[in-house]
Amino acid sequence: MIVAMQPNATEEQIQDVVARMIEIGFNVHKTTGTVQTILAGVGTPSQFDVKDFDELAGVAEAVRISSPYKLAGRGFRPEGTVITFPNGVKVGGEEVVAMAGPCSVESREQIFLAAEQVKAAGAKFLRGGAYKPRSSPYSFQGMGVEGLKLLREVGDKTGLLIITEVMEISQIEVMLPYIDCFQVGARNMQNFNLLRELGKVRKPVLLKRGIAATIEELLLSAEYILAGGNYDVMLCERGIRTYETYTRNTMDISAIPVIHHLSHLPIIADPSHGTGKRAMVPAMARASVAAGADGLIIEVHPNPDKAVSDGAQTLFPEQFEKLMNELRIIAPAVGRTIAPAPVNAPEPAVVA
Ligand code: PEP
Ligand code: MN
To answer: Which residue's CA is the closest to the ligand 1 atom numbered 6?
Structure first.
């Protein structure tokens, strides 16, 4: 059940409603918006009449929510979630935010160069996996803590926020001092124990859609994190497995407006994993922004042909720069802003 309080409801009235909700067996999550307070009752009390709540002093409206994801549902925060990072970057606001960098952290030279290049094009986050979920156990598995240290160092040097994948519970503590945002990969979208633990931390999480997950399943997975009290969750459409084989996955652009309709959480599009092919990435990135994505996460490498993972879907720095310039035309057309190209940005270097 969602109880929207009247804009002028007193603290005493709010507390009264909270007490009534607890009394009948709800777990109450309170969110204080700029205009009104919303109380979300989570749980399944056997007997209650939503109309009784409508009558309580200070209540504007009480609605019984039948959707199984109460905290992730739009009704919990009708105005939408905006996540503010320590350097002031906001995700879910007016600005479309670019996250870019290599699939994997490979070396000091590679990640420092990649960071300079994506920053020069207007990215706000540096991505790069230090722990890599690979389909084959014989493939490169990531640099681990050494990779995390490099990410932190380059993040501090450039001012880019660091987003990187967490694969298991034991990595959470290790990662906390080095990163700005956890990424939960497609393969772990339904690792419920991991999601529960991420609900206890106070750092944002980007949750990727599983390769065969429905939107409802994605939202239910987000619910695990929110239920722990961590409300800073972004969702990510990264393509799903269909019968099509030309592309690595089928990028579900429709998931973007559907998620905006169903949920208040920001939605980020990943056209790199969504297509698996470098040539298709810019078109899907443009389409994602046109469809209302709050951000993009894109693989960019100083020399993609030499990347240890996902080279085929990784953009050259010049391609990323060109894409960002195209997005600077599209974003305003759909009522959004995007970072202007930094003035006096150094020419992105290209590694031969
Ligand atoms: C990645 O971002 O490099 C990655 C492994 O993504 P996904 O979990 O979407 O496959
Ligand atoms: Mn990748």
So the answer is: 185
